[in-house]
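Human: Can I borrow your eye for a moment on a structure tokenisation matter? Separate attempts, laid side by side, tell us more than any discussion would. Could you pick a protein and write out its sequence and tokenised fold? No explanation is needed for now; the record alone will do.

Assistant:
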Amino acid sequence: MIIPPYLKEGDTVAIVCTARKISKKELDPAIKLLTHWGLKVKLGDTVGKEYHQFGGTDVQRAEDFQEMLDDKEVQAIWCARGGYGTVRMIDEVNFSSIETNPKWIIGYSDPTVLHCHIHNLGVATIHGQMCLEIENKTEATRDTLKNILFGNYDAIKFASDFKLNRTGHAKGQLIGGNLSVLSSILGSKSTIKTEGKILFLEDLDEYLYHIDRMVHNIKRNGFFKNLAGLVIGGLTDMHDNTSPFGQSAEEIIANAVKEFNFPVCFNFPAGHSKDNRALIFGAETELIVTKDNVVLKTEA
């Protein structure tokens, strides 16, 4: 796996829309943060563009991303926001330059398709908070992103005695992202292989039966077979029908993987929550789950 070069003061971070629209004003806090870190900012043409709910047409968003991908003066590309739309433009992007000129791609949720697609090319990416509302997230959210970019990444450790955790020790590349997106891209060239890896999952605003359907979909596609470990982040704002499903989102997942023996941790501080810590997807990672604690340590 190729780890993109870490940043130094004076390097440039590009901000683009791969999905929903965003205004320059909404980006001011993120721009201020990057400037505080000693970095330069290059705004893509899609910032401020509007095509229905998207930040420009599919072609415009693909061209903007392509320009930043090929620009040798840009060291990282930060997705402005998520929502929906990245999957509509990804097949119009030529990713050949990221293999010869690797750079950090940053985002989560809808940009999960980018993480998976680029993972298959052998380049690491950053699953982390996007520009929108970064000022409203925890200090750890911002610090973990900065630490990855500048090569000072440390292990994430937190106390956890959650009853559905399964203790154990695993090593492997970390990959995954938003469950809904992972399920939706199955069968495409962006589908990931999880054998021997540590899988991270999170999701937002889903009905419990949708979670069950998607978990069983990825299970039937072999995601849990020979998996090294499973990390479950935020399962945020879940919904139920008038006739209750009968299990929480966490119980649905625990039940789906009960036949396997890899370690599992729930409530990891990443996803659609105030505490959304950055992760290096593709990097060799160690997962340790004990009865009282969880440690996720990256070797990059």
